[in-house]
Design goal:
heterotrimer; A alpha/beta; B mainly alpha; C mainly alpha; A: alpha/beta; Rossmann fold; 2 domains; 6-stranded mixed beta sheet; 4-stranded antiparallel beta sheet; 10 strands; 20% strand; C: mainly alpha; ABC transporter involved in vitamin B12 uptake, BtuC; two-stranded antiparallel sheet; 11 helices
């Protein structure tokens, strides 16, 4: 399992007495599409929120290992997860303290994990291009002063950010709406724009939270092609929550099934869809009959 | 009484009923405050006043029903900058700047002070615009930074002996620190609660200035030294040694010299602030402020450090407010806590709201209108606050986004 | 020197002050619970009530009503009705058209209303401080000599009326169909309207009831202190809001309890520590509460929903 890009160990998340995630263990393979499925309230979005730093997990660890660099302890980036052995090393102590003060979601995004949201969260009053430029803020200007006096280096960085944004927009067919306000775009384009915006942070690991919700079947097909495209051309690992099985099953390399805060199955789509526990817990006890009907 | 949704069939009877009910209610409401005026423990009946008021309210009500009945919305004026002006933007700006430069030499002292307060309010509006208009953080205690600037200068010169020019960096640092100090505790807050906390901070600062007699002089205030130019004073005779400005240049002494100097300096500062804010808006920092206003959670998901963004908005806004405070103190020559009440915060907020949240040109226009209006309508001076209040309410109903819509930057390939 | 009687007197004053804060806080807490906005103009509604009280008393005296208790009763009724109308009118004119607008709009509009009401009263009645004659004289005292606790009959009246009106309000909210509509609207406005609750009417009533409670507070304060001006609403309003936050905004018993707590601590602070800074003290409590315990002293902290 050393080749997984994300390893989650005994991760738990509790809200007061409510246990949303109960000692989750899972691995996500690099350069692949992994789907996270499960009934409503299974804890899928909670897991995403932990992964991307919106929640600080109650216990457990999340380790991110992108290609070419060492392992990153995501819980530490959130300024949490203090361990006993940290006391004996000043360096680790200092690191903990640093992230306690300056840690947070942005540290996780910097390491290459980005997400989208179930209910689209665009900057509605800003144009599509501005949405993408906000995502590229780190690429444009390390120093605010260079932008105030418009140094050539600043202009070059800004130019290349705009070009990158246009490249992505063209790639996914939104080149024409770059200067339109996000709130004026049709829903399907908003969904796409949110994914493109996430791509603009230059991620290695992209979490998509129900990207197909509210899309019609043609748009869903287009979305599937887009997700494949992102994985193949850009080498981004994709972790996707989705209810639409017609989207998930064909494109995923690996499926993880979550139910009531516990991982109940993990494997290829074919394996998972035959797993009796999954059939019972997730797809309902009458699945066999329906499935038999589908085959005929 | 207004659930009359059926269109086009409002009969005369309905109109009469509507206006009668409105009239009676309005009369009852207006009567005790405007009709029966207290005189000691007795009262004086001025029954015509509520009558006129109620009549006009009833009339207004009929007009609104009539408009609604015809499904007519009130026309929405938006200040559209004509294409011609936009084309010759640089030329226009230069022309305007030239006129503003020449202005102090052609008006008397009184109007000069009015022009100075216009510029001070522009500066304050620009500062608050960063916090409210761009970052979307409703700050009702902005006057605190104004007070920090003014008192920083006055007390700084009294206790530390710093002059006008040294006060500028001193106050900038002080105000930014105060902005950060205020920003830290309110990081997790949104909307209404943030507004009330900032209001609380603003009032606390004013009350402390008012009560700490030994340090601030309390309600009696404190004197602020007039500004100097390379050590030259704008007084009749130099008090701090050296020669005053008019002697050095062989000019007749004029009391307007000091005001002209402050005006010109202020004009340069406003120009600089405008440039600063406009550049910032097109930079990652400014865009992050707007992104924060639009959706904080999405901001965080993109790796923006929302703590740093909020603090930067607070501190840069505070910086501009503080600088405005120095100029206020320098031109008044004397300050006391009564200049820094909640009303002042509301007024600056009114400027930002009226101007269209986020638009710098809107802020400039609104500040000019709001400062000049009471001067033009001198007869209605008593009604000034009333008019501001009504404007705020009507604006929220009619054009919640202000008169000038901020133009979005366009990006070509 | 510490004196148990001084302490007792301060506690008594605090409770009286606190019950006034509590009565006004009810308006903040009910409005916040239902429409989720801070009715910034609520303090000025209370100020209006003080003026209505004085005007009503003056008129009643001119009409030759000699009985103090009858005059008081009529004044109370008039103040409650007219101030209630003010509350209703403010909601109707300045807040109802904003429902569904962006989130800062109602607050900015409320600030506008607050400015309008202050300036309107200032123009209508003049800027000077107004007053009413002392109506109820005499007091009860406990103890003797220097060590006594005094409670005037007016103060006794304040406590009685405050408790009675809170009980009445609780009855209205828990027992009547209007109260049921209020509670339903507070839970889920959309669902309540689908089920046939008249949302506009309910919200109008909430504002009116809030204003009526503030009116009672206005009458009581005017009777107790005798003087007032057009600016009293601002500071008292913020303090009452602080009381609402202390008790957990949205909760009725919380508002009353928060009022008493704030009144007590303010009275003890000004009695034993410093009188000049008592407003700073109240504001500081407000700021600290909103920063550290925005859900009130007894509420549970909320989790940010992503």
């Amino acid at each position: 399992m050393s080749d997984s890009i994300l390893t989650v160990n005994n991760l738990s998340m509790a809200f007061g007495g409510l246990i949303a995630l109960d000692k989750i263990n899972l691995h996500v393979a690099p350069n692949a599409i992994t789907a996270l499925i499960g009934p409503n309230g299974a804890g899928k979005t909670t897991l995403f929120n932990c992964l991307t730093g919106f929640y600080v997990p109650t216990a457990g660890s999340m380790t991110f290992k992108p290609a070419g660099t060492g392992e990153v302890d995501l819980v530490m980036l959130l300024g949490s997860g203090w361990q006993r052995q940290d006391m004996y090393s000043p360096r680790r102590c200092g690191r903990r303290l640093y992230y306690k003060l300056f840690g947070g979601t942005h540290q996780i995004v910097r390491r290459g994990i980005t997400r989208t949201f179930q209910n689209t969260r665009l900057f509605m009053g800003m144009t599509a291009m501005e949405n993408l430029l906000v995502a590229q803020h780190r690429m444009i200007s390390p120093l605010p002063l260079s932008g105030l006096v418009r140094l050539p280096s600043y202009r070059r960085a800004e130019r290349s950010a705009i070009e990158l944004a246009y490249r992505y927009l063209d790639e996914f067919g939104l080149g024409g709406v770059a200067n339109r306000l996000a709130k004026e775009l049709p829903y399907g384009q908003q969904k796409k724009l949110e994914i493109i915006r996430a791509l603009c942070t230059n991620p290695q690991f992209l979490c998509l939270d129900e990207p197909a919700a509210g899309l019609n079947s043609a748009e869903t097909k287009e979305l599937a092609a887009m997700i494949r495209n992102i994985k193949n051309k850009m080498g981004v690992t994709i972790f996707i929550i989705e209810h639409d099985m017609s989207l998930v099953m064909p494109i995923s390399d690996q499926v993880i099934v979550l139910d009531s805060g516990v991982v109940i199955a993990m494997g290829t789509p074919a394996q998972v869809s035959k797993d009796p526990q999954v059939l019972e817990a997730y797809l309902g006890s009458d699945y066999d009959q329906k499935h038999a009907g589908d085959d005929a | 009484m207004n659930t009359n949704k059926a269109s086009g069939n409002t009969t005369t009877r309905t109109y009469i009923k509507e206006s009668l009910i409105t009239f009676v209610l309005a009369y009852v409401i207006f009567l005790p405050i405007t009709g029966l005026v207290l005189k000691g423990y007795d009262y004086q009946a001025l029954l015509h006043r509520p009558l006129y008021l109620a009549l006009s309210v009833a009339l207004l009500r009929v007009c609104i029903v009539w408009l609604r009945d015809r499904r007519m919305a009130l026309p929405l004026p938006t200040v559209q900058i004509p294409a011609g002006v936009r084309k010759h933007k640089r030329f226009g700006t230069a022309l305007l700047f030239g006129v503003m430069l020449a202005l102090p030499f052609s008006i008397d002292n009184y109007w000069l002070t009015v022009a100075i307060s216009v510029l001070i309010y522009i500066l304050l509006g620009l500062g608050l615009n960063i916090v409210v208009g761009l970052a979307g953080l409703l700050d009702l205690g902005f006057v605190a930074f104004y007070a920090v600037g003014a008192y920083g200068y006055a007390l700084g010169s009294q206790y530390l002996g710093i002059g006008f020019w040294a006060a500028i960096p001193f106050v900038i640092v002080l105000a930014m620190l105060c902005g950060i100090l205020l920003g830290f505790p309110v990081l997790r807050m949104h909307g209404d609660y943030l507004a009330i906390v900032t209001l609380g901070f603003g009032e606390i600062i004013r009350l402390v200035l008012n009560n700490w007699l030994d340090f601030t002089g309390g309600p009696n205030g404190v004197a602020a030294p007039p500004p100097t130019l390379f050590g030259m004073e704008f007084a009749h005779t130099a008090t701090q040694g050296g020669r005053p400005f008019h002697e050095l240049w062989g000019l007749e002494y004029g009391s307007s010299h000091r005001y002209i100097f402050i005006y010109l300096l202020l004009l340069a500062t406003v120009a600089l602030a405008l440039l600063f804010v406009n550049r910032l808006r097109q930079m990652p920092l400014g865009r992050s402020w707007e992104a924060l206003r639009e959706n904080e959670i999405a901001c965080r998901s993109l790796g923006l450090n929302h703590v740093a963004i909020k603090l930067s908005a607070f501190s840069l806004g505070a910086m501009i407010g503080g600088v405005a405070g120095i100029f206020f103190a320098a031109y008044q020559g004397f300050i006391n806590p009564s200049s820094f009440t909640f009303f002042e915060s509301a007024l600056i907020l009114c400027i930002v709201v009226l101007g269209g949240s986020g638009s710098t040109i809107g802020v400039v226009l609104a500040a000019t209108v709001i400062t000049l209006l009471p001067e033009v309508l001198r007869d209605f001076a008593d009604f000034r606050i009333l008019i501001f209040g009504i404007v705020m309410v009507v604006m929220m109903i009619w054009r919640p986004r202000g008169f000038v819509t901020a133009k979005r930057q366009r990006f070509e390939r | 020197m510490f004196d148990i009687y001084v302490l007792g007197q301060q506690v008594l004053n605090g409770v009286i002050l606190g019950s006034i804060y509590g009565l006004i806080a009810v308006g903040y807490t009910m409005v916040y619970g239902i429409v989720g906005m801070i009715n910034f103009a609520h303090g000025d509604i209370y100020m209006i009530s003080a003026y209505v009280t004085a005007v009503a008393l003056a008129v009643l005296m001119a009409f030759g009503i000699d009985s103090v208790y009858l005059a008081l009763l009529l004044t109370m009724v008039m103040a409650v009705i007219i101030t209630g109308l003010y509350g209703w009118a403010v909601e109707r004119i300045a807040y109802r058209p904003l429902r569904g607008s962006h989130r800062l709009a109602p607050l900015i509009s409320a600030i506008g209303v607050s400015l309008v009401l202050q300036n309107y009263v200032q123009i209508g009645q003049g800027a000077r401080t107004q007053g009413i004659p002392t109506l109820i004289e005499g007091s009860l005292s406990i103890g003797q000599g220097d060590s006594i606790i005094q409670i005037s009959y007016t103060q006794l009246l304040i406590i009685l009326v405050a408790v009675a009106s809170m009980c009445l309000l609780t009855l209205v909210i828990t027992r009547t169909s209007l109260g049921r509509d209020c509670r339903a609207t507070q839970q889920d406005m959309v669902m309540a309207s689908i089920l046939g609750v008249n949302i506009n009417r309910t919200i109008a009533w909430v504002f009116t009831i809030g204003a009526m409670m503030a009116a009672i507070a206005g009458v009581l304060v005017t009777l107790n202190y005798g003087t007032f001006d057009f600016y009293i609403g601002f500071v008292t309003g913020i303090k009452a809001f602080t009381a609402a936050v202390l008790g957990g905004i949205g909760s009725l018993p919380g508002a009353m309890l928060g009022g008493v707590l704030l009144g007590l601590s303010e009275s003890l602070f000004s009695g034993f520590i410093n009188t000049d800074y008592k407003d700073v003290f109240a504001f500081a409590i407000l700021v600290l509460m909103l920063i550290f315990r925005p859900s009130g002293l007894f509420g549970k902290p909320e989790v940010d929903k992503v």
